[in-house]
């Protein structure tokens, strides 16, 4: 009767109760059994690592160039920020109390 009941459950139903490191009926990875690894796979792995290193170096160089460009742009950037604040203030506080001299004056004061 116990065999009949046990056959209803999968074999790994008590896997959480087993001590760590004990693995039963685990399929063996054929790649790990090979004592002599494929030299082509080793070469491909080395090439891949070299490509990754080159990409990392290129990315670091690009970041350094961007940082240098940002440092060079800072003085003019401060002026642009000041103009942006002035424009934002004018948008929030349009000058509509004085009469407009022309269409251009209206556009300048209301749309800028």
TrEMBL record:
<dbReference type="InterPro" id="IPR052438">
    <property type="entry name" value="Chromatin_remod/trans_coact"/>
</dbReference>
<protein>
    <submittedName>
        <fullName>GLTSCR protein conserved region</fullName>
    </submittedName>
</protein>
<feature type="domain" description="GLTSCR protein conserved">
    <location>
        <begin position="87"/>
        <end position="111"/>
    </location>
</feature>
<dbReference type="Pfam" id="PF15249">
    <property type="entry name" value="GLTSCR1"/>
</dbReference>
<dbReference type="GO" id="GO:0016514">
    <property type="term" value="C:SWI/SNF complex"/>
</dbReference>
<dbReference type="InterPro" id="IPR015671">
    <property type="entry name" value="GSCR1_dom"/>
</dbReference>
<dbReference type="GO" id="GO:0045893">
    <property type="term" value="P:positive regulation of DNA-templated transcription"/>
</dbReference>
């Amino acid at each position: 009767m116990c065999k009949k009941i046990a056959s209803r459950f999968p074999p790994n139903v008590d896997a959480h109760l087993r001590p760590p490191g004990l693995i039963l009926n685990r399929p063996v990875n054929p790649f790990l059994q090979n004592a002599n690894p494929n030299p082509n796979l080793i070469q491909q792995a080395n090439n891949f690592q070299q490509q990754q290193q080159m990409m990392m170096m290129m990315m670091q160089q690009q970041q350094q160039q961007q940082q240098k460009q940002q440092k060079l742009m800072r003085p003019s950037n401060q002026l642009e920020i000041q103009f942006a604040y002035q424009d934002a203030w004018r948008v929030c506080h349009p000058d509509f109390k004085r009469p407009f001299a022309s269409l251009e004056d209206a556009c300048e004061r209301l749309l800028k």
